[in-house]
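ugh ok fine here u go
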Amino acid sequence: MANILFLSLAIFIAALTFVAIYFSALTFHSDLVDEANFVKTMYFNWGSQHSSFLDSGDDATLVLDQTSGSGIKSKTSFLFGSFEMLIKLVPGNSAGTVTAYYLSSNGEKHDEIDFEFLGNKSGQPYIIHTNIYTDGGGGREQQFYPWFDPSEDYHNYTIHWNPSQVVWYVDSIPIRVYRNYQGEGIPYPNQKPMRVYSSLWNADSWATRGGLDKIDWTQSPFVAKLRRFRSRACAYTGPTDTAQCGAPTPENWWSSAMYSYLNVDQRRQMNWARSNYLIYDYCKNIKQFNGFLPGECLKVQY
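structure:
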């Protein structure tokens, strides 16, 4: 009888654990939130002559050829929230191209949170390049190889930004965290509203093997495909919104206690991604900082 009770209890606990993990993963799945399309939320801020919104605005294409790249920008500024996009990257020989998906404020001392996808020659992996700027200062790059071919199908890339932390997700798996240590003199992006951008552009001066592999224009036009952009976030209309957007209210669900840290399963996923696919971490490049690593590198990362 004791063995039966123990087995039943173990099954019950396992079931609860599965449910918790299941709903945690679903947090960033697009089909659980209200539909919002590109026509309603974004506009082409450059390169519109050869790019377009498709399927009533649910899809978009970004195009790069020898005349121009292209990019879109959100109509609204935000201060904190969850931002996700399904992206299918340029197939084949994409060397020298960069597809970007990022948040950025205005001005010289801007804040910015980046996903950049660095193209490569056919048969070689893309590089997922992440970075964060605060008050105009960047240099916080971390790079990953994807564990899939990002040009074969759409994958979900999410930036979750709140007063406690910034988290980069790939298909609901966290790959990086930047925590708020502003109270210890470490800059954190929590005052400047940002818009959402996505672009495809020529970066063959640096993107692939440090600029050694140039764009093969005989392969152009290069096309990146976007789908189902979601901005579940606090729309910023003026200074009075600064306190409201950061308040831990039910409406600001992205700032609730459960999003102030990674849970046990998310930390396990993070460790898996970083152990297997992290290829560059600025916190390990002491030469870049003349022997003095940035303060956040000496703190708990996640």
